[in-house]
Every structure is written in structure tokens, then in C-alpha cells.
Structures
1.
Amino acid sequence: MSFENKNYAFAEAFVDELARCGLRHVCICPGSRSSPLAVSFARNSHIKKWVHLDERSAGFFALGMAKYLHQPVAIVCSSGTATANLMPAVVEAHYSLVPLVVFTADRPPELQGWGALQTIDQTRMYGSHVKWSVNMPTPEVSLGVMAFVRSMAGRAMATANEKPAGPVHLNFPFREPLEPVSVPDDLPDSEAVRQHQAYCGRPGESLFLGVVSTYTASVSKDVLRLAEGLKRYERGIIVCGPDAGEDMAGCVVALARKLGFPVLADCLSQVRCGPHDRSMVIDCYDAFIGDKEVAETLVPDVVIRFGALPVSKPLTQYLERHHTARHILVESEPLWRDPLHITCEVWRTDPVRLCAELSNAIEGESSPGKWYRQWRNVAEVAGKAIAGELARSEQLFEGKVFTELSTLLPEGSLLFAGNSMPVRDMDTFFPSTGRSIRFMCNRGASGIDGVISTALGVGSVSSGRMVLVLGDISFYHDMNGLLAAKAFGLNATIIVINNNGGGIFSFLPQSAYEDVFEPYFGTPHGLTFRAAAELYGLDYCLAGNWSTFSEAVKGSLARKGTTIIEVPGDRKLNAQLHRQVRDAVAARLSRREGADR
């Protein structure tokens, strides 16, 4: 290996060490100042390159890959406002605990503050939203600098991965020449170059800086104390929220069986669906937990919560209403995800290990008692009411999109939901099923930007078919992201619910103020998206009824490429249909209560 000049000796040492530390994907945006990094990545055969024209889309695409793989993905961009376009994805990565490694190019110090083009202050530009931010030195070639470069690569990867995972930012000032032109005088230290050349090897071998992380095990006496305490409660619930923990579905249900506690499984917890035992899993709680009479009969004494707060607002309000219960929060990361301030005990441990140790500490198995049967009976009544209401309705109700998908998606599918209404509808209307379906959403900052790019990033590295459901405003926000579907030949099904504006606002008090609601909150745009599909060479279907929708989804899942399925909707009608479903659930539960009395 030979190096044309010090920029390339510096950059290639850095990229080579990244590959040795396990980096396998990089999203590269075109630019002149970032040429040494871009070309060095291009030359490295161990790292897959994904080229994006739009930095914001690149950031979210990388976020999607890193979110799915649970390993760092790199982003490279040029200087100036290009770097600012990465901010939304960096923010989401920070709050979603996603390990991004962001490499921005910059002007050298002598050009800073002197009116040079495409030059802004990039020092710590992502603020507290990155775990670590460093201005790299301008490239030089010496034994000390080359060792420093490799150490920085190893530290960046380790820092991004270290719990809690998150983004890191390294800023690279490069002087000209930026292209790989030979400058012999740039490489005076032949020994540094020789050692660097000798050090280049296969990824994963002889890391320059290796980092070993250990995980503190649960303390046995504390687990026994907790187990003894939990056994004394008859009225307990287990809440599995988003990011509850990897591979914990089976063990949390086993613990629930030991305790006789129902498991309220958020769709994003990965506990609701799958081949595991789901006998203790409650799925449609969002439709009944807000009912005052029901909530008053289901008063818990203890709540064990895994992961973030659930998507369901009625469930969150239920937890807050019963703040006097013993609330136990289990998180593997040093976070404080308790905005309600009701938690009285926080466990910092591996949730899978804790569930297993608690199960082992509790002898025998509790047969489902009156408390569990109450939850199960209410859930079954609510589920039947929802199913009956949806079966009678031929309207294109947004919630029914997810009920339909629950029967259409094959084993191993990945369902990605946009924020605002789609993720809420997914949580309410996608029932528990024995098929393995992975649910995802950008719930770190819960933004509606970058959804297409994130989902396509997920789809680029996932083995199952990726299906995205999002609203029209989210789709409009990230239409640039569709280029990735065309450029990389991705297989995806994109369902855009087009209700001509911001659908979630119809559920908020602002909707009562008709004089200002439509122009400032509803924000109708009058767009349809067939032309967007044509622009990017993607398949398209306008689903005007459920039969067309079903056939479009089936057709998309059966063929390669990306299909956009547009589902027209009406915001006022959608809010009305949501109310009808909840009224039907309340009426069915009221009849049940009357029959019980």
C-alpha cells in the first residue's frame, strides 16, 4: 500500500483501523473537502459504501442500519451546512441509543473566521447530543501521529458502542490538495509510512486499541429480596415498553407466569408477537385502559416496567393515576426514563438476566388468579368489540391498516411505523400473533422527519421484508430519501396514509377552533404521491378500498423492488371512526359489567 500525500496517509490509517474494529457500513455524501475520507473508504474492501446525495437522508439511512444491526455505522460529509443537515439524525440517535460515528470534513484553522467559502464553526456543533466530539489535527505523518490516528478510530468505535450507545463526532480539517495526487515532500517520515503499511491487515486482527467492556451481574441477595417482595403481591402488572430488552420475550412471560401478573406488551417491545408463550400477554389495552370504570377495577399494587414509557397515552395516564403503587423500573442503560416521576426503585441490570434470576428465585408457578383473569377477560371483550367494529366498516379507517397487515405480513417481516398517528394505531390495532414480526419506529425524539430514509436503512440490512407505514406529512418531509430505494435496488413496501394534512391534530383540543385549525394545524397540501413514485421509478398503487389494499400489499411482498401504496383518508372521518371504536369497546365492557352484577 502506498500513499499519495499526508492527507491520504492520515485518512487511510484511520479508515483501515475502523475496519479492523468492526465497521462494516458507511454512508458517504459527495463533497470536495471530504475527498480524503471518501476515497479512503472507497478503497477499503471490508466496508460497504452507500452513497447519498442528501446529507439529511444519509444521516437517517445510517441511523436505520445502526438501529437494526446494533453496531456502529459511519457517515461522511463535506464542510459547511452539509454538516448541519445531519443534526436531526444525530439527535434521534442520541435519544434512541444508536451508535452512529459521524465524520465531517472541515477547512483548516487558517481559513476559519476569514470569510472562506463553505466554512462554519463545526466545533462541537452537535452539542450534548453526541457522547464525544473531537476536532482532529490537520494531517501529518510521523510515528506518533499515525499511532494517534489509529487510537482515535478505536476509541470512536468503542465510545459509540459503550453503554449507553450513541453517536460520536470527529471533525477533520484538510488542507489542499484534497485529491489523491502525489506529493512526495508530504511523506518525510519513511519509518512511519513503513510501519503503517506493515500494520494494515485483515479487519479484527491485532487492533491498535482494543476495548473490553464487562457487564456487572445482578447481586444475588438483592434479587432474592426483590423476589420475596414480589411474591407478596397479588395485583401486579409487567409493562414492556419500547426497547424493553433484546431477546427477552420468553423470559419475561416465564416470570409473569411465576407471579401471575399480566404483561402489557407495547408493540415496540418485541414481546407482543412471536412464537414464544404469549398466554400472559395483553395486547389491546390501549382501547380499554382509558375507560374510567375499567381502570377503577384494575388497580395495581406493583408495576414492573421494562424499557421506555409505552406508546399508549391511556396506559401512561393509567400508570400516573396509580402512582401510589410500587413502581419498579428495569433498564440496562444508565438512563432515567421516568418523566412521570413515579418510580420508587430502579434496577440497572440486564433485563433478560434479571427475569431469569427472579424466576429461579420464585419456587413453583402461580396459577392464573382472579387478578389475571380480570385483565384477560377485559382484553378479550375489547378485542372482540374492535374486530366487530372494523369488520362492519368499509371506510378506509387508518387504524384498520394495521389490522389488515396483521393478517398479510409473512413470518420474519419488519414493520416500521412513522410517528404521530401511525405508531399509535400500530400499538392499538396490531394484535398479538405467533408470527415473528419485528416492530420499529424512531421513538428517541419522536420526530416525523427522516422516516423514509431510516426505514430504508433498516431494510437494506434486514433479512425480512420491510414494510413502512407513515403519514403524508412525514412522506413529504423525506421524499428525497426515496432515491435510496432506486439507487440501491431495495425491496420495500411503503404505505402512505394521505389524509391531506396533520391527522393527529384532529384529536387535540386545537381542532375545536375552526377559524385557525385548518391553515395552522390541519395544513392541507392537496398533494398525491403517484408522481413521486414515477420520479424514482418505483411501483405505485392507489388503494381506494380494502380489497385493492390487500392485493397491493400481497403483490408488493411477492415481488422485488419498492412499491408505494397510497391510502386516501379524511382527517375528520378518521377521528370519528376512532371514537366509534372506543365507544364500541366501552359499550361492550359496560354490558359485561352489567351481566357480572
2.
Amino acid sequence: MRSTPRSAKGGSSAPAVTEKGHSATALHLRMHPRVFAALGADLVTSDVVAVIELVKNSYDAYAHQVWVRLGTEGDQPYLEIEDDGQGMTRDVIADVWCLVATPYKVINPNIGRNGATRRVSGAKGLGRLSVGRLGERLTLLTKAAGHPCWQVEVDWTDLAAKENFNDSTVELRRRLPKTLRRNSGTLLRVHALRSRWEDEQCEELKDNLERLISPFKGTEDFRIYFTTTTDEGEENEIRISTPKFLTRPKYRIRGEADDQGNLTAQYRYRAISTHAQREREVTSSWQQIKGSRYLYGTTPNSAPRSASCGAFSFDIRAWDIAAEDTREIGDQYGLQRRRIRAAIRAHKGISVYRDGVLVLPKSEDGRDWLGLDLRRVSHVGPRVSTSQLVGYVSITADGNPGIEDTSDRERFVASRPVREFQGIIKAIIEILENERDQDRAKDAKETPMEDLLGEVSAQDAIEDVRALAQAGHSAGRAIPVVRNLHQSLTKTRKDIERRFTYYSRLATVGTVAHMLVHEIRNRTTAISQFLRLFRTESKKELRRSLAPSFKIASESVSALERLADVFRPLASRRFKQGSRTSLLEERIEACLRLQQQELQGSNIDHSPVPDSRTRVAIHPGELDAVLLNLITNSIYWLQELKSGTRMLDFSITQPDDATRVLIRASDTGPGIHSEDLERVFWPGMTRKPNGIGMGLTVASELVAAYGGRMAAQDVDTGACFVFDLPLAREQEIP
């Protein structure tokens, strides 16, 4: 009878028959030392991620401060990470640090210091592989309080050349306590770096260090510093901090999901440059969420009665990121548009923090781990992309045991808790999108011409189609993308047609300007010649009765000539924008002189023009057109003032390291209605009887042509207009 093999409990079947005379042999599992290099390359996805893992080790050592430095020793670059944590004893170095994939943090998930406790962020024991990825050699200095200082030397290249782990050793030696600058802590210096740290990679590292600590937890007990060395050998140290504007988003939803999967949240809309805002309490039950398309599709009744992912907190922030929106943020916080987009890009997507430390995503490729971009291009509606979102989700190891990340820290292990966790977050984002859509409809603005023309682009559609292609979808899935692009371009085309129809009515301005300049020049030339001749032919001093009249006539001719200079750019077909520079203070003074009669006649004072000399890269004629629009506007509304001081003021702000200058024109008139703060720049918008509503439109678009923005500000008394202009470069100064 054939014998049936017996299976070992919980294992696979063993062979029933062995060859006669031979018994089973136990073989040792072996591991080649090259595993350090292999695992380091596979599990640590980039050099930036490697540094992040090492900084997290400092956090796990209960450091309060950690310094990341890029420097050179001789002509050799190095990377250094130093902390003031608890350091390591000799036993910990031998039994924990030298043990690959140690379970030490699993066994000891919490660390205490001075009566406080911190949950450690790592548990896989693979952090040291990050060092092997970064460079060929490591010098480690560490000291625990009350213990000697130890130095460890590791040569990863030498280790990889060994035949087996038994031959793999590191050098350990005792050092003087003063070798480290602190009573306790660890210093890692990585030599012979495997890649060059260029400016772009340094910026990426700084951006990712900003994300490392959760916004749900105060960061005062853990500070990160980043230091680079200039070509002249000077150190530049900065403290890593999150840009302030990220803490004050335009759209925000934050709250909690309980351990049953029910949502309680608060949505808040707050305009960037006005006082408009709206708040709303939002709730959503697990019954509603589990029936959505994100979880159990069309069969919600078969879904679990409660979620299994565990309770968590969330704070999801969103912005509109068109050019006008980033200008608003820049004006509010004194930032360049480039820096605003870079900050949002650095923090973009939904970041998950476990016990206060970032879990994922770690690299750029993992930012859209929820599939938000694909969802946006696959469904028509008020969707947001990862590039508009900065979201934070807080989980705990104890409260969310089913949410586990993979060894490479780039995604979660697929499971029911993870699927439900992702579905709930998508439901939260959909609530944000619907609320945001309502506020955007109320907040509709007239788009500046520069931004309007910028919308005639297929770049976003190209990125959307690329996302679909990378996800393996057919060409048919791209139809909604093309349809959305068509709708957007159609709307933009209609806006442009409307604007140019309005502008076409003013096309004769150039002809009128040409005639005006021609006539003024001809007349003033003749009058000037007569005045000079009269002065020459008069043998005696002008009689007292004639002298004042002669002076007024001369000044009037000069005023007319200055007026002709103002209109000359509009009259010349050969005029090239930006071909000349201007002294800002000189032009303000000239424009005030031009309006001196109106100012005096209306009892309007103006503050002294600053005595600085600020040269800006804009043609004097165009600058005068901007300034005169603001001055004549103020004169008109100040004349409407029944009582009180009539005052006009110009101020100039120029930060030391700026490439642009900020000009502020304010008056003490009746001010601007709050609903008109944006609309005053719209073509045809005017509160003046018989006005055509083009002065501020022209002025704002002249400023926009030089990369700036003009804004009306809500102030306690009067009106205030602020705009910026580029400073002239040295080579532009005549």
C-alpha cells in the first residue's frame, strides 16, 4: 500500500522516503555582507529619505535638537548628523546597533527622559542601512550620560568585500568625554559620499525636514537645524520651520474619525486678502461613508457594521494656486510666488503621522498614495489635486494597529483597516471639495489680463493624461480630461473676447495721444521761443507787475511739456516696454508738481517725498501713468470729503535682500467700499459720475506687465493702494 506523507503541523509536507543510508542534514542560513548595500538601495528609496530616517533615529533617542550639516574636510565632502539625545552605551552599540533588523524598538516602544515619555517612530531596525546608502565610510561618536564616549568606524565597501557575516566587524574605541560637545548624544559623520548634494537636492531635504514633525504636536521639544557651507568656507545654519502661510489656508477641514468610522469636523473658509470667511460644522456617519464609491461600492449592506481602522485626527488644508491666488499670498506674507508654490509642492498631498512622526509619504513618487490625481481626472466635478492640498492625518501605534507601513516606508500594507482608512480620508476630501466649490462661486473675481492669457494652456491636461497612462488606463479614460480642457478654454476665450471688445473702444487713445503730443510740442515750442526772446530783448529787469505773470507762463509751458512726456509712450509705435529705468522718488515728485494746482485748489496736502534714490526697471512714461492715475483718483475723492484733513501720502519699502520695491499710495478720503476692493480694477468699473472706469485698470495692468500686482487695501480711514516694481539691475542703470 502506498504510504501517505504526514504534514508537520502548520508546515509543508516532508518527504516520505529518503535514500538508503542517508539522513537529513541541518544547514545554516547564511547572509552575505553585501546585504547592507542591497537592502540599503531597496529599502531606502533616496538619499533624502536616508537622512530623514537618521533624523528620526535622533528623535527616537529623545533628542531635543538635531543638526544636519553638509560640509567639506579638505576637499572631501561629508554629511553629518548630530543630536543631544541619550546616546549609546557600549552594550547598546554591541547588542543593538550592531544587530541588523533588531527587535529592540518593538520590545521597547517608548523612551523616557526626565520624567517625560516619547513613542519611538522606528521599529524595523533598518535605520543604519541609510548610512550605507549615503556614503562609503562612517564615523560614529556617541555618549550616554555617566558613561564613556565611544567611537565606531565602519567601512561599508570593506564589509561588502567580506565572504560572510562572521568576518564582518566594525572598529570600536574609547574616546575622551570632551570629544563630544554635549553630556550625551550621538554624532554620525558619513565620508566619501556616493552622490553630490547640489542646491536642488538640499532644497528638497529642507522641505522634507519641514514635514517630519506632525502639526498636531508642538515642535518645541524637537528642533532641527540644517547647515551648509559656502564656497568661501562660511557656515549657513537655519532652523527648519514651516512657512507661516501654510498655517492659514484658504480652505480647511479638521476634526476626528472615531473608532466606529464616524466623522465630526469643522470646515472653514477664510479669504487671503479680505475679511470674507465662513465656518460650518460637518458630520458624516460610517453608514454614509461605507456606502460611498470609495469603499464597498453598490453593496453597502454587506459592509462591516463599523470601521476597523481605529480612531484618528485630521487637518486638511487647500489653496487655489492660480497666479492671482499666489500673488495674494505673496502680498500678505511678503513671499515670492516661486517660494509659495515650492512650499505647497514640498508639503503637498496627505501626510500620515504615527505618534507625532511622519510615516508616509517619504519620497515625491509616493505623494499621491491615495490616488487623488487619478480620481480628479477620471471624474468631472470640483476636484482638487495633490498640488493644492496639504493634509495631515494623525494615528497611533496603539490605536491603529491594523495600519502598517511597508519596509520601504512608501505605502501601507494592503488590508481591510487600510482600505477603510483610505476610504474615510477620501470622503473627508470630498466634503472639503463640495464646501470649497460653494465659496469659490461667491469669491469669483475678474482675472488680470496676464493671468487670463496664462490660462490658455494645455499643460495641466498633459499632466492629467500622463497620470492616466502611468496608471495603465485606456485612451477612453482621457475623454473627461479633454472635455474639461475644452470647457476651460471656451470660458477663457469668452472672457478674452469680452475684455478686448471693451479695450477696442479705447483703441483711439493712441491716436489721441499722438495728436496731443504733437500739438503740445508745436505750441510750447513757439511759446518758449517767445518767452526767451522777450527776456533777451528786455534791457531792464522785468517790472514787478510783469514778473509774476512771466513766471507763471514759464511754469505752465514746463507743465505742458511734462504732460507731453507722460503721453509719449502711448503715442510712439516704436516704444519698447522696459527699455528705460526711472528714479522712483523723482517721478513721484514730478507727478505731484504736475497736479500742484489741483492739490492747492482743493486744500490737499501731501507728505514729503522720501529723499532716497530708488531706481526701478520701468519706463518713466509708464511709471508716470501709474502714479498720475493714483494721484488724480485721490484728488477726486478727497474733494468729496466734507470735513477733516485732506492728505495724500506716498511711502516706499525696500527690504535689504529684495529684488523689488513696494510702493504705498494712501489718502484720507472717504475710502473704498469693501465689496469694491477687487472690483476697482475691473474694466468699466467706476463710482465716478460719467467716469469710464479705465484708470485703475490701465495702472494695474502696467504694473502686472512688470511682474507686479496692484491691490486696494481695506484701511480704517481713506483709500490705500499698494503695488510693487522691479529694482533696476546694475547693468540697467545709465
3.
Amino acid sequence: MERGRQITAMIRAGRGLLIILIVLSLAIGGCGPETVEPEPEPDPEPEPPRELRVLAVWDGATVLNPLINWPETGVTAGLMYGTLFHLDGDRSLQPYLAEEMTLVGSRVTLKLRPDLLWHDGREVTADDIEFTLHALLDPGFTGADPGSEFDFIVGARQFRTGEAERIAGIDVQDEWTVRFTVEPGAGLWNLYFLSPVPRHVLGDISPGELDDAMRRESPIGAGPYRFEDAREVDLGTEIELAWFPEFPLEGGEIERATVLLSPQMPTGEDLDFDVILVSGLLSPPIPEGFSSQKLIVEGFEYLGMNLRDPVLGQAQVRRAIAGAVDRRRVAEDLFGEHAQLVDTPVPWASEEELARHVYNPEMAKIRLTGAGFSRDDDGWLRTPEGEAVKLYLAYPTGDVRRERAAEGIAADLAEIGIRVDPVQIQGDLLLHNLHVRNRFDMYLLAMPWEMSSSKSTWGADNIWGYEGLQSERRDGWVFAVTEDLPVLFLADPGSILMVSSDLAPVSSWSIPPLGDLFLWTWATEAGN
């Protein structure tokens, strides 16, 4: 009996095993009970490139020195030296080499990051900030002419004109803190984007020799990338940069960057780059295999007018000109598909701060009639005193873009009775006529928003000059400028950022300037 029970148990066990095997076989064959498929693993995010080849068309080799080309330090100087603050993808100001900057009354306190190192291992200190400003503004320094860009610091003007031995408004508080005394209403924009240079490397070099020394020596900065090599190639100067592992902020996804600084946009097989940066002034075509994006710059093309002229000195006439000129067409004449209209001298102005001038030739005629002007039988305008209105519009010799734009403006103004003769003038003579002789009617040029303080050029009240921008930063200032129209704003050429389609899209990261200028454009979501 016992043996029978054992056999029965074995049979039952065998049947159980058989059932399990049948179920498994059915499941494998797809004929068994419905099963729940596991969730697929998400695809890993593409890795960012470890090396990057960059073509910067507008840069020259001198951008290795941030003092020489201040404030347009260029791509390479931004990578090697960094700036005290930077703009993120939303154009919001963010601390970078500096930890913070606070303004209380007339005192500005700047605190550096305490963990910053120069590329040779020495600490970056507040003494370097003081040295940089004195080197940049020294009257003996031949590398740059920042003019009045730092005159908001008390004593800066006296130092740069040779009236004082030091800048009185700079006071080093401790190893990482500098205190500035500034003029009332000062704008601190230029201080935010200062690139410090090392006192321990350059401090014993005289101001007159500093330019040549910085061109000869290997640059030592405090930015995220350190200089490795520079060489001349057919298209320009090629710079090799490597990530500086001691840089205290996150980054380093791109370990190496090769930047070609070229005065021209190459074509065809020479376009072996990941990223191309080129000024919209060149109206470059977008090469096959590249996507493009426009970067906003702080500069614009404009129609300048002599405010001392009895006709152009009247705001009503300038407003009539603004309504008669087809600015959209002029922008396209200047920059082709890359044109973008400009209505304000400062890029951060809000819609509420602007006075708009729309294209409306009929309204322009009404403005002129209201100002007492009349038209002859032949259609040309006369002043209230009966004098014929005839102006000339100057532009630089050999500038085909501005020649085309000047002819279009002359045709537009002829429609409202203003006779305009476009005239080519050699560039240096044109500038001499503007700023020294003050002999001109109208002209076409481009400028950054920090502009000349020549009262004869910009009006007796100096509302448009650089000092005005610093001291007149009050409610309604931008509206007053855009309503009064000391110049007619035309177009912003911007800069064109082209990215090769060979680069996989990656999420953006914050390390500037590569993060701001290049990599955030590759984000998987638009607007990142």
C-alpha cells in the first residue's frame, strides 16, 4: 500500500510538471493566456559632442585679448577669460565669475567667486579687477578706446584723460571684494560684462607695451576654456581651446573647441564645422545641412540726421520722414532675409516704453503741412520761409548695401516732396564730417547703443548721447528718444548662428558662453 501511495504521488507530481511545461510552451508560442508586456526602456538622451569645431566669421586674432577689442571680446576671449556676469537663454543677467553685485546709493559692491583660479593656478582676486580697469582706461594704453564707457565710476574720466593717477572710485575691500563709488543714476551694464585680466602676469608691463605683450604671450584667463595653441591657416587664425578642469561652475561637456577666426565666409568643402557664427551684415546664405537662428546684438543700422539743420532740427519733420520711409524694404535692401526692424536704441525696452512710427506717407504729408511746409507745382517741398528743401544722404564709398538703401530712401522721401541726393563719401572723411566739422545733412551708418556724446550730432540737450543713456535712465526716457527721433532706427542685422544637422539635439546646459551661444539652440524643446 505504501508503495502504491508513492507511485500515485509521483504521477501527480509529473502531471503538475507537465501542466507547467505546457503553459510555458504556450506562452512562448504566443497561444497562452494574455500577458502584460513590460514598459520599454526610454531611449537614452543623446550625448553632447566632446569636441566642437566653430567658425567665427567676424572675429580677428586680436580677440584673444579682451582689452584690445573691449567690449566686443568675441568668441575666443569669452571662452578663455569669461565675464563677471552673463546672459542666460532668456537674456536674464546671471552671476558668473562674480558671485554678486549690489548697489546701495552711490556704492556698488562686487564680490568675486572665492574659488576662481587663473589658468596657471593662481587665485583670481579683487586686485585683478582693479588692475583690469586701470589697464583698460590708462591714457597710455593703445589697444582699445573705451571712451566714456566707465565714466559712471567716480574718477574714471579724470584717470583716462591723465588728470589723476588713480581711479578714485575703486576701493579693494578684501581678497574678493571691490567697492565702486558711482555717479547718480549710473547704468552698470559695462561693469557686468567686464573680463578681468591677471595682474600677476601683466602688472609689470607698461601701458604702452601692454598691447604688444598680450599679442605675443599665451593668454592666461579665468574662463571655462584655456588656450592651447594658435596657428595661421588659409582662411584665418585657428585657435585650440581645452576645458579648464578647475573651473568652478558646472560644464565641461565639450572637452575641446577649435575656433577658426576668419574675415570671410568660406563655401563648399571648406564648411567642415559644427557651428558657424557670422554677422548678419554679410547677408550670408544658409549652407545646405545647417539650421539657422538669429542672435540679437546690441547694435543697429540707422538714418542719422543733423539736428542743427533748420529743416531736420524740427521733430515734426523727422516724424514725417519716419512715416515716409518704407523701413521694411530698406531693411531687406541692407540685410536681405536676415533683416529685423528696430524701433529702440536699447534692446530691453518694453512695448509700453516705445513710440511707434508706422509707414504712412499720407500722414507724413499731413505732418509737413501742419509744420508750415508747402509744395511747389512740381511737387517739391518748401519751408515756411519759401526756401526749397534739398538734402544729401551720405554713405561710405563702395558700400553696395547702403547704396541700394540710400536710393530707396531718396525715392520714398521724394513721394512727400523732400528732394534727397545720395552721395558716396570715403568712410574716414564721413566720420570727420560728422564728429569734427559737423557738416552733413543725413547719413547711413551702424552703431551700438552706447553712442557718441557729440551734442552737435545728437542735439543740444544731448538726449541721445552716451552720458544721456547713463544719467537720463528715468521713466519715459526711451519713449522720449523714440518719439523725438534724433535718428531713424532701421534694422538690426544681428548675428546668424548656424548649427550642423550632424549634431544630435541635446538638452541645454547653462555653462556660458558655449551654453548661451551655441548649445542651448540644440535643445529638444523650442525656446529652451
